[in-house]
Each structure stands twice: as structure tokens, then as C-alpha cells.
Amino acid sequence: MRTKTRWYQNATIYAIDVKTFADGTGDGVGDFAGLTDRLDYLAGLGIDCVWLLPFYPSPNRDNGYDVTDYYGVDSRYGTLGDFVEFVREADRRGIRVLVDLVVNHTSDQHPWFRAARSDPDSKYRDYYVWVDDPPEWPDPDRGPVFPGEEDAVWSYDEEAEAFYYHRFYHFQPDLNVANPDVREEIRKIMGFWLQLGVSGFRVDAATLLIDNKGGLESTRLDDPHGVLRDMRRFVERRGDDAVLLAEADDDPRNLASYFGAGDEVNVLLNFLLDAYLVAALAEERAAPLREVFDLLPEIPEEGQWANFLRNFDELNVGRLPKSYQKTVFERFAPDDEMRIYGRGIRRRLAPMLAGVSGSEATGGPPDESGGDRDRIELAYSLLFSLPGTPLVVYGDEIGMGDDLSLPGRNAVRTPMQWSAEKNGGFSTAESEALVRPPISGGRYGYETVNVADQRGDPNSLLQWFSRLIHARRECPEIGRGDCELLDTGDPAVFAHRMVGEENAVVAVHNLGESPTSVTLSLAGDPIRLFGRDGGVEFERVETGEWRFELGRYGYCWVRIR
Ligand code: NOJ
């Protein structure tokens, strides 16, 4: 049992892309003014922490992950003053703010790269990774991250007359973290945002950040994890309870290393659990979910997993066994246009789980239920009950859909749907001015799926989500307890117990469509905490034995004292 609880172990994190969340100035682009106005909505929903995707000045060729200035706010989203107002207003409502720290690479328009390419003697030359002749290709572990969109990791720069290294797009040159000056810059950037009141950083591409860039001798780090240890030390020194939440979609055998001895990252995005959870939903069997617990490492006492179902990128199923990949693709992404990079799905969760095809989603009749409500509830109830901290992306709480006509990952990055009014209430601007078109018409259009309508309806997904978030808040056992998997005797039913200091939470989930019942031995009388309204009943069948009746995709959480 872990003894200390830190804030991120019992929180719900909500991911926001400022540019598509709420436009407060009417120019068609989401901004800090709009976001600040919506803080009461987030507080009402029960959100403890928001993670902001990059909002820094950027040519925006990779949704802001191509930064040109680490110390500013892109003028389209507001000013630093607006940012500070936002952090203060969030704080007044008890909401913490994490910001994206994108220091594996910069934009090729960053002044550092401009100086580096134009002057071989500039101190910035060595901020990046250069060679005259790229090393032998291919190193299977160091290929382009976006196959099909990039076909090399070395690009020739005419001005520099040399090749530079980039694991992502060619306009995102990798920073050379082996250079102490670069490490100093990273500290300075973190210090700046901590001073402005953030509670930490979502460390972009942590795996590649500490990799031996380009496989060169000159970029080899003696102690790669020392980079993360340094960052953690700095954040603890300068921040008020601030943390590092890292993105590392790495081999399961490497995952424990990011936590170090409890002195590297505090929280790791749980890509592995995501893939196996989605496999369990597709297979309608508990087995994949049980298997992932054998793959996930033990983590230190203050460490935590951030569990999610979808994010703003592709849903990566590449680490699943082939048979699971096949089921996931067949059930959740049957059309080619729904897939990406040969390993992922570019859909939002609601249409994916409803088994709705792309053309049905945009052209089909409105569907008041927002797709298959029972399955959405099952998926999120499971997510919120698994050991870790849940993370949701904006719009999932109302069951937003995707727009497959948009290129690549932008399919899942459409504007938040606030109401049935013009542009879904996202912006008052004319449609030509919008940063991205909102989804209109069909099952998932803003006319049908929006916050305003769901707010007034006690049976809506939004209201259900708020109950889920509040239920999770009452269960610190889930955030910091020990997890035991329970035998249910039914392959479709997953049951687990999270044991806290004094109490335990038991959660039972029926991944299948057919109603079923299972009997569990529980040391104590269960008290119902959360479940589908009218959907689950349980009764004592013998001393210590309880039978749970689970409907179609039914679920239930109980507390045992
Ligand atoms: C991970 C981000 O989630 C993704 O959107 C981005 O393209 C890459 N990092 C590069 O920064």
C-alpha cells in the first residue's frame, strides 16, 4: 500500500487545445479569453487539472508542436497577460494547469535553428544534430515517426550545406540534448512557466528526447535518464507541488525506467493500457485487459499512470499482438480512411464504439443518444476505475465525433461543440475564418451533440460524465491503492479490487453485449458507489458471496469497508 497521496494521484485531467476550444474574441480562432470564460464549465464537471496542448508562437505545421518561441503565447490565442489571467482564474476554482513542453525539437523557423543553419560558427549550430553524410539507413529503431508523411530522418539544408536530424517532420529539427547549453535552455523554459503558476509539464516525446540522436557518438548521453532526473529536480525546486507527466510510447520493458527510483517523471501516459483496453472492448473479452497487468511494471510510490482512451493523435495499436490488432481494426476502423501510419486509428471514441462508418457519421440521421451510449459508459467507467489517474480530451464528455475529411490526425481535432447555434457556439466568426470547421449535420453534428442541450438533460452523457468524475473523486483507493484482479468465471466480465488504507473499491464490468451474472467473494458488505442507473443489482447468495447481475455492457463500482 502506498502511504502518501499527491494531488495528481486522485485527479481527473482534461486535455485542451486552446485554438479549437472556445473563441472569446470572435476571430474564428480559440483563445485564452474564451477558455477562461469556460472555466466554470470545467469546474462544474469536476475537472482538477487541465493539460494545454502547445499554445506557443508556431507556424502550426504540426498543430503547434513546432515551436518558434518558448517564452510566448501565439498572438492568435492572446497574450502572456491573458495566459496569467487564465492560470489565476483556474487556480481560484481549484484547477491546476499543465503545459506541453516540446523540447525534443524546435520549428525550423526558431531563431536558434535559423542561426544554426546560417552560421557554422554560431553557438546555436551545436544545438542541433548535423552530419555531412547521413549514417547508413535504415536503423529499424530510428525511423520516421510518421511513416507515409516523412520518409527520412536526415534532411539536407542548402544553407548549412549539411544534413540535420529529425525524428518527426522535416520542419522539426531535433535538439541536441547532449549539449549542456541546450539542457540549460530547457531549465530556463521550465522556470519561466513555473514562475507563471503552472503545476508542471507534459513532456512531449520523452523517449526521443533522451535517445542517442542519430546514433552518433557526439550525441550519445552517458546517462540518458540523467536528463529526466535533472528536470525533475529542477521542477521540485522551483514549482509548488509541480510535476512531470511524460509521453513515452515505448517498449513495455522500458517503461519502468522513466520513473527511475522515483526521481524522474511523476506520471507516465499509459499507452500500453490504452491499446489493451481498446482490444478488450473490441474483443468483448476481459482477457486483453488481464494480460496488460502482466506487462505493466511496478512503479514507485509517488509515481502514477495517466490512463486514457483517446488523445489528439492516432490511437496506436502497434504494440498489440497481431490478432488483437486485427479485431480492433475490423471492429473500430473498418475503412482505410479511418486508419493512419499503418498502426493507428484517427477516430474519436464515440463513433468508433458505435461501429458507425465515416459516411454514416457525417451523412446519417441525427442520433439523440450520440452513438452507442451503453458502450461509451462501459469504456469510461472502466477507464476511471483502473489504477491511475484518468485523462479525457475535450468533447469526449458529450460524445463528439470525428471529421474524416480533414487530413491526418486533424480528424479528431475539430472545434468544441458548445451549442446548436452558429459554428456550434465555438465562434461567432464567418465560417471562412474558422481555424477548423466544426462538425455539422449527421449523427455527430453540433446541432445534435452539444453542451447546452446535454446540460439541461439529466439523462445526457454530459451529466453522466460529471457523476463519473465525482464518483472517482470519492475513491482515493483507485488513485493510490493496490490492484487485484478477481476471477469472475465469465470471460466477458472483468472485475478488480483496489485496496486502500481502510477501504477497498471493487469494480465489475461486462464487456459483452449479452446480460450475465457473476458471483464474487467479498470480505465485507458492498455499498453501491456508481453504476448504470437501474442497470446492475447485486445480492448476497451465501456468506461472503455476492451475485452481480450485469446488463448489456453493464458495470458497477462498490465500496467494501
Ligand atoms: C507528440 C504529439 O502528441 C504529436 O501530436 C506531435 O506530432 C509529436 N509529439 C511531435 O511533437
- Number of helical elements: 16
What class do helices, strands and sheet pairing give? alpha/beta
Q: What is the count of structural domains?
A: 3
Largest sheet: 8 strands, parallel, barrel
Beta-strand fraction estimate: 15-25%
Shape label: globular
Low-confidence stretches: 363-370
Radius of gyration (Å): 23 Å
Give the CATH H-level superfamily of the largest domain. Answer: Glycosidases
What distance lies between the first and last C-alpha atoms, to the nearest angstrom? 16 Å
Provide the CATH top-level class of the largest domain: Alpha Beta
Number of strands: 22
Topology of helices and strands:
Layout: E1 13-16, H1 32-37, H2 39-45, E2 49-52, H3 80-92, E3 96-101, H4 111-118, E4 130-131, E5 154-157, E6 162-165, H5 180-195, E7 200-203, H6 206-209, H7 224-238, E8 243-246, E9 267-269, H8 271-283, H9 287-295, E10 304-307, E11 315-316, H10 322-332, E12 339-340, E13 344-345, H11 349-354, H12 358-363, H13 373-385, E14 389-393, H14 451-455, H15 461-473, H16 476-480, E15 482-486, E16 493-499, E17 504-510, E18 516-521, E19 526-531, E20 536-542, E21 545-550, E22 555-560
Parallel strand pairs: 1-2, 1-14, 2-3, 3-7, 7-8, 8-9, 9-10, 10-14
Antiparallel strand pairs: 4-6, 5-6, 11-13, 12-13, 15-16, 16-17, 17-22, 18-21, 19-22, 20-21
Helix pairs in contact: 5-7, 8-9, 8-10, 13-15
1-deoxynojirimycin is lined by residues 62-63, 65, 102, 168, 204-205, 247, 313.
Structural account:
This protein is α/β, with parallel strands linked by helices. The protein has 3 domains: 7-104 and 178-471, Glycosidases (TIM Barrel); 111-165, Oligo-1,6-glucosidase, Domain 2 (Oligo-1,6-glucosidase, domain 2); 481-560, Immunoglobulin-like (Sandwich), CATH 2.60.40.1180. The protein is 27% helix and 18% strand. The strands form 5 sheets. An 8-stranded parallel barrel has the order 1-2-3-7-8-9-10-14, surrounded by 4 helices. It has a 5-stranded antiparallel beta sheet with strand order 15-16-17-22-19. It is globular and about 80 Å long. Mean pLDDT is 95; it is low at 363-370. The site of 1-deoxynojirimycin (NOJ) has 9 residues, from loops.
